[in-house]
Amino acid sequence: MDAATRNYLVVTGGYWAFTVTDGAIRMLVVLYFHLLGYSPFEVAMLFLFYEFFGIVTNLVGGWLAARIGLNLTMHIGMGMQVVALLLLTVPNAWLSVPYVMAVQALSGIAKDLNKMSAKASVKTLAGDGGDSKLFRWVAVLTGSKNALKGVGFFIGAVLLEWISFRGALIVLAGMLLPVLIVTAMLLPRGFGKMKSKPKFTQVFSNKPAINWLSAARFFLFGSRDVWFVVGLPVFLYSVLGWSFTLVGGFLALWVIGYGIVQANAPRLIRKSHHGQGPGGGTARLWAIVLAVFPAAIALGLHYELDPTLVLVTGLALFGVVFAINSAVHSYLILAYADFDKVSMNVGFYYMANAGGRLTGTALSGWVYQTQGLTGCLWWSTAFVLAAALLSFKLPAVDTQAEAVKNV
């Protein structure tokens, strides 16, 4: 096994462990604070700083990684997540909305430092394997991460039911800390560090393709979170009467399936790009297809079809198509990025991703409280259509190919 492959596996393993805790803490917070009597909008507000500081972290984190190395930013993120988990173990009297928002801000910084570092590392490690290898590696990393986030949802719900909120947090912190130590020992120092010290103003991309892709990403992820973060789990628990374990298990299976599809996206759409990486046309096509599903689910609920059947079937189909959209985007940002500025380009792109999640999360609580789950789904449809329109400005990858091949 060569050094690049070994480092890729170490990065992926660390990303996996972090992702389990990220999924678990999200499910724990949604279900536990709903149980404490928080309204859907108040639960959404608990994640406001989580998403807001994700925007700030992606903007600053890419620049920081270029100066100190991707390995350091990844491990700083892991350490901050351990601290965030332990900070939530305080007595209930301390768990005010401002306190939990502040802790979630720390967790949001941790998550985006870790994600940006892992994703940017793939560009560096793929070397001169070409577009196809880059697409495969980033699809496997992203798909497996999302599958494990689903595992995290399930673990969080089960731990909440078995050993309580605080016990679950201690178990998760105890799992992540050894992974931090091991990956810190295995990854080389200065990994992903630029030779020259970049200026902060270089964070903002001057490549139109990256800017248009980032805008499309904003609306793509807003379209998911506007109904998935708060509206869906609260609806399943309070309207359909599902237990915590059933809600967590269902959402876990969805995210696991979504991750499996994402990891296999290169094979699923191979015929459309003839062995090369997908381009802007692929992103447009799959965004248009995606818009059909939230609209269809909303219509099914409006006409009072069996809500369980409509949601389970519709969410499964939405997940398949959303996964392909996300995999295409994750490839395109690395294909469009300059090799020597990959961490900053990826950081800028995930800043837009975090912005979409922030908007979707805030809307999820407010729209569900005022318009119900059907309203959340119509907002989702509008966001997907916006992503599709923005994707018309994305070029084919072969116009950017030299930046990928000259590595």
Question: What is the CA-based Rg, rounded?
Answer: 20 Å
Give the distance, in angstroms, between the N- and C-terminal Cα atoms: 21 Å
Helix and strand content put the structural class at: mainly alpha
Q: Please, what is the average pLDDT?
A: 82
CATH domain fold name: Growth Hormone, Chain: A
Q: What order do the helices and strands follow? A: HHHHHHHHHHHHHHH
Explain what the structure shows.
It is a single chain. The chain has 407 residues and is an all-alpha fold. Helix content is 81%, strand content 0%. The chain contains 15 helices and no strands.
Detail the topology: elements first, then pairings.
Layout: H1 3-35, H2 40-46, H3 48-68, H4 70-87, H5 97-126, H6 130-186, H7 208-228, H8 231-238, H9 244-263, H10 265-268, H11 270-273, H12 280-302, H13 307-336, H14 342-391, H15 401-405
What is this structure, in a nutshell?
With 407 residues, this protein is mainly alpha-helical. The protein has 15 helices and no strands.
Labels describing this entry:
81% helix; Growth Hormone, Chain: A; globular; 407 residues; disordered C terminus; mainly alpha
